[in-house]
Amino acid sequence: MVRRRSARGELLAAVVASLLLGVTGCGGGGDEASAKEVAGTELCGGEAVSGEASKALKVIAGSSRFEASEEKYTVARAASDLVETWPRTTIGREVLCRIFTSGTPRIQLKITWGVGASSPTGDPGPRFTVLKMGEGTLVAEDKAYLHFACRSDGLPTARKTAHVLIGVERWSMPKVPDVDVETLKNAYVTVAHSFSLAMAKELRCEKNGGLPARPVLDPA
Model pTM? Predict the structure, then answer.
């Protein structure tokens, strides 16, 4: 009887071990999928990050190895959400995309969008540098915000001009990049410009929302 119980116990242990291995195998596949690496130009739907902005991301993150973005994070999706929102306004914290580096430490940048009824006003404060791009661009060593005006047949006509805000923020970065402040600011502006231009094109804004083909880095 003792031997039978032992045999049953061994059989049960084998079954449990087999099931655990199966679960572990499934989890491993998921980890591999989530850890897929892509180039900067493939992030956020593949339309948002220019070659120049991809190089800027490397400056900000200290790496050119990025995790593939979730499918919901695209400029097309953000533009569609903006059209559905307008003419209501937002506070500018709607997530357009989250960018993560691959490996350790894992660094995160957050790209946001917002829409308002008027041009930005007020004093941004001493930590920001003001650039003459769009309706106004603000940049610090850990973020950049770009405003542009959009007139488009694709927007509801209750209000003719939407004032769009694109933000790029350092959200989780254990180590500050070892580059000078001006280089870092230029990198943030370049990324903000790339997302803004992609958004303006997706919304079919007249004259691309007044945005230049390349980022303006000179202070206003």
Answer: 0.82
